[in-house]
Design a protein that fits this description.
- Strand 2 and strand 3 form a beta hairpin.
- The radius of gyration is 26 Å and the shape is elongated.
- The protein is of the alpha+beta class.
- It has 9 helices and 6 strands.
- Helix 6 runs antiparallel to helix 7.
- The two termini are about 40 Å apart.
């Protein structure tokens, strides 16, 4: 967990299907399909994968000439390929642009992200198929990004990076609460004659620790943008519950 990163260094379909990369079980059928897939990159693809930019969400009417005109301003282009349907010849709305220089692709990835081309906002990133180990394409249940309407969101990429797990955002609050409470309980248990005052003190301390833990938990949820869930986590009032401990 100390090596957490918002961007996946190795593609794992199970983690890609999880908003924070911590799922232990697939949550949709497409993830199961991706886990059982045996995909190998297309050997027919030519060019340097480290200099190839992936361009997606194109307007169906955008042509190769238009793409060349847009992306040539970032540097000299080695080759450009707009992917088309083999039967109809219609654009599949994504393309690959190979540059001659590394600085050109870095600039294009930075400046062309969410650029509007032919009245359509496009998405750009480094090619993943030949550079990201374990890559599984979307048609096999993998990929990255996606829309909520599709029910097949994939995380760990530029479009939808992993969110920091709540346990990391909270630090060690839960562990401190558990171990600290146990130590105090043991101390009170060892008190002579089961001192009732000490027992009440331990109960109040345990409640205080639980209240602090809830606050940290809520803070972690807010930090991750889960405000709707954060509202469901109670922060108990000591003044409201203290009479029950008498």
């Amino acid at each position: 967990m100390n090596e957490w990163s918002p961007i996946a260094n190795v593609y794992n379909p199970l983690k890609a299907g999880s908003i924070d990369g911590t799922d232990l079980e697939p949550h949709d059928r497409a993830v199961w399909r991706a886990l059982s897939a045996r995909y190998k990159p297309n050997k027919g693809v030519v060019g340097d994968p480290l200099l190839t930019l992936y361009v997606a969400r194109l307007n169906p009417e955008t042509s190769e000439e238009r793409l060349r005109d847009v992306f040539s301003k970032y540097g000299p282009i080695q080759r450009l390929r707009l992917v088309r349907d083999t039967v109809t010849g219609f654009s599949k709305r994504y393309a690959f642009v190979e540059y001659k220089e590394e600085r050109s692709i870095v600039r294009a990835r930075r400046e062309a992200y969410k650029l509007v081309v032919d009245q359509t906002e496009i998405f750009v990133d480094f090619e993943q198929e030949r550079t990201l180990k374990g890559w599984i394409p979307r048609r096999l249940g993998g990929g990255q990004g996606g829309k909520k309407e599709s029910g097949q969101l994939r995380f760990g990429g530029k479009d939808r990076p992993f969110r920091r797990p709540i346990s990391l955002a909270m630090g060690h609050g839960a562990q401190d609460w558990a171990t600290g409470g146990a130590r105090e309980r043991d101390r009170v248990s060892a008190a002579p004659n089961g001192d009732r005052a000490s027992l009440r003190e331990w109960r109040l301390l345990a409640l205080w620790r639980w209240t602090s833990f809830c606050r940290d938990f809520r803070a972690g949820l807010w930090a991750n943008g889960d405000s709707a869930v954060a509202h469901c986590v109670p922060v108990w009032s000591l003044t409201a519950i203290t009479p029950e401990l008498r």
